[in-house]
Every structure is written in structure tokens, then in C-alpha cells.
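Internal ticket - ligand job 360, nicotinamide-adenine-dinucleotide:
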Amino acid sequence: MKFHIALIPGDGIGPEIVTEAKKVLDRVAEKYEHVFTYESLLMGGCSIDVYGESLTDETLERAKKSDAVLLGAVGGNVGNSRWYDIEPSKRPEAGLLKIRKGLELFANIRPAYLYEELKAACPLKEEIADQGFDMVIMRELTGGLYFGTHKTEEIDGVSKATDVLTYDEKEIRRIAVKAFEIARKRRSSVISVDKANVLDASRLWRKVVNEVAADYPDVTLSHMLVDNCAMQLVKDPAQFDVILTENMFGDILSDEASMVTGSIGMLSSASLGAGKLGLYEPSHGSAPDIAGQNVANPIATILSAAMLLRYSFDLDEEAAAVEAAVKQVLAEGYRTTDIMSEGCQLVGTKEMGDLITARI
Ligand code: NAD
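stdout (C-alpha cells):
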């Protein structure tokens, strides 16, 4: 099959880790006889240096025309960089908001997977970590409390702040459909998380998710209150396959879930819209402190490329081959600095990319 991929290396370690992910994609194309074409686009500080803003309209249009976008990370040293002496709407991170909005991405997916070899980094009790876990959190990205009306006023000398939480049934339905579709590619279980005992928005959420579930009789659906979910994530994470939730709950729960996996250099993510076009990026930032030293862990970006294959191109077997190669390299004892432990073999960014590529 033929696909066109927009690469946005960005700043800091971005170019190094995207180079390794592209190497992996090239190997997939070669092995499975696909044709992947690429174009490299500027976003972040590197775009400010050339165009005076983080993401130009023209670059956004080119990203829209691709089949998928693979992003490294953007931004510099916030306290000490020329990119932060300009107005906030032009700073590196503004490009992230602009591209997510421009590509109409409303669903964010973050997997939390515990690698057998990295169990020592998991902060959970040994008997819980021993059971392992493999879940994805699907978070609604463009609605809810963060996008409602915000105001602070003074009434009779007393300050009062109000934030409005709204969801309509269309917003809920489209993300619920995504969650059920993704569950079908996994273990066919969705746990929808809400606060339906208190919030109207959650009661509507639950009603619409139940309606969507009727179209997916092969997928098991259950509901969980958000406070219970926060507890279950540290008590029994093995029970989760796909967690579907609204914006603010997802913001908090996805950070909690990623924390229990232990290493930031391993965490991939995807943002999807109504069609197949998606934006894939590691969950970490541009790590300017280690940029250009060949020490960054490229695995989060390589696993993001695997998500790209699965969710934008429907190449499930190819995605699984990339994930298996990552597992194999870890099982063989190769580690970058951030995940290094005793008895393992320390490798750099480029070597880690080569090792994974060679095992596909
Ligand atoms: P960060 O994630 O870049 O770094 C936090 C720590 O983790 C650093 O010590 C870094 O060296 C380490 N680290 C991160 N990724 C790593 C990897 N792949 N391998 C090994 N170590 C890794 O977060 P920060 O320092 O708060 O932010 C740095 C810059 O990144 C800022 O400009 C920030 O705005 C930006 N940022 C961008 C994104 C994005 O592009 N999506 C996300 C978060 C932060």
C-alpha cells in the first residue's frame, strides 16, 4: 500500500528520535512491500527561527494533505531561550494547539503498558506489578470543562469563579465510536469512566455510550466512577483494556496511568479525528538538556510510529511487528540511559533505533 507521512521533527531531541522512527518505518515498508513517502515540516522553535511563528498556515495545510503526521517534540529551555521572548500565540507550544485544532483531532489515545523487563521502574507493589498491565486511555480532547465558559467576578465584595462543563451527544458519540473501534483491535473491552452520580454531563455521557455499545455486541462495556477508577489504576491495573473518558478526567487519569509504567521515554500517544488522519507523538517533551548527545530514548517515538501504522493505515500486523521488536531488544538487555539498570548494555539513540530496525 502507498501512504504519505508528514514528519515534524521539531526541536531539542525531536530530530534525533524522529530519525530513528523513520528508520523503523522504512524497514516496515521494505519488509511488507509498502511505499511510504515523507515530507519534513517545520514546527516549534525551528519554525520561529525561519518564519517568526511556530506553525504557519501553509505548513498546516501540508500536514492536512498527508495520511498521517509523526511529531517529535517542540520547545526549548523555557527559562532561557529566544523563543519565549515573543508573544505567547507565536511561541513553540502554540503550534501544538494549532495543529491539533487544525486537524480536528478530538480523541487522544495514550497506552500504558508494563514491560516485563522494566518492572523494577514500576512504583506499584511487586504483587500488582507482577500481573502486568496493558491498557489505553482514550480521552476526549476538545470539549468539556476546559472548553466551557470561564469567568471570575466579584459579587457583593466576594470573588467568584465559574467554569462551565458542557458535552453534547454528538461529541460523546464520535469518541465512543472511536473507543469501540479501538477495543476491537485489542481485547474488546471498554470501561467508560464518568461521575454520573453527580454530573448531568456524565449522565448524558453514560446514556450515549450505552447507545453506541448496541452497535458493538462483540465488545464488553462497563461503567466506572472516576474516583473509583483513580483507585483501581493503582490497585488492579490489569483489569483495564480501553478506558474511555471525557477531557478533564482523561487528563488526570492518563498521567496517573503513565506514571505507573515507570519511564517517560517509553510513552507513545496518538490524537485522532473523524477520519483516518492522526497525529502521533511521544508523551515527553523536547528534552533540551540532552539534545544532540545521542542519549535520548527513541522508543516512545518508535511506538508512536507503530500506533500510526495501526490507527491511520490499518496495518495491524506491521504495528505488532514493531512492538515485538521493541520487546525483543529490551529482553536482550539493551537500554538507553533513562531506563538503564544493572547488568544491561547501555546504547545510544541511534544504536537503539538500529537494534529495533534489525529485529523487524
Ligand atoms: P521533557 O519531557 O522534555 O523532559 C523532562 C525530563 O525527561 C528531562 O530530564 C529529559 O531529559 C527527560 N526526557 C524526556 N524525554 C526523554 C527521552 N526520550 N529519553 C530520555 N530522557 C528523556 O519536559 P520538560 O523539560 O518539562 O520540557 C522541555 C521542553 O519540551 C519545553 O520547551 C516544553 O514546553 C516542551 N514540551 C513539549 C511537548 C510536546 O512537544 N508535545 C510536551 C511537553 C513539553
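Auto-summary: The mean pLDDT is 95. The pocket of nicotinamide-adenine-dinucleotide is lined by residues 13, 73-76, 78, 93, 96, 264-265, 281, 284-290, 296-297, 300, 338 (CB under 6 Å).
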